[in-house]
Amino acid sequence: MTEVHHTGDGGQPCARHGAASLDAVFALAMLGARLTRFQHDIASKLQGVMLSLDEIAEHTAGARDPELARALETATSAAAELERLLAASRSVSRPPLPTRTTVRDLIARASERTGVALVGEPGDIDIECCAPLIAHALAIVIDVASGNDRVRTLAVTAHASATHVELAFATSPAQLDGAATLLAVAAWLLAQHGAELRCQGDTVIAKLPLSAGEYPRPVARR
User: Fold this and answer.
1) Which of 13, 122, 141, 201 has the most beta carbons within 10 angstroms of its beta carbon?
2) Under CATH, domain 96-209 is a member of which superfamily?
3) 195, 167 contact by CB (below 8 A)
4) Which residues does 131 contact at the CB level (< 8 Å), separation at least 6?
């Protein structure tokens, strides 16, 4: 096996994006193999920064220097935001645990990670899933679908049945580099949770089960 792919019309390999080579997939895996240790190192250093900022705030509490106060407030706010981003990243590498959430919340998490503004009303459809991982997969899909456009906006629609919800993302004609590899990774991740990813014309569709059921499938971890 030298290629991996997501599907297109008729369940065949996607003709628009093509297949991803295993070399490209393993290049991403090489980065991922370092992720857990990197997150641990960053968390340790960030804790030191937060403690130092607390000490600075304590020692300068009586100082009447508005510029110093503003600089300290900015640094503290930036460190808190970094801590939030790190927590979101670490949640992807933890053992998956299904929880109840809404499709609206999943899409909001995904779009926030990519900086893409979504146009459309997904509705408050209730869903049981491993939210951090599904949101991560959807973030990859959104990133690819929005392409290389300077102003990144993306139309999304949601259609629910008794057992599934389909999210349709209209794709940009300005295709993102490495789209085939990224979509192959997203398709694999969704499949571990009983979900599907396919392209249909100029639309990328993610079909998610409303109940986790027997998923997620166990994945070998370091």
Assistant:
1) 141
2) Histidine kinase-like ATPase, C-terminal domain (3.30.565.10)
3) no
4) 99, 101, 105, 106, 109
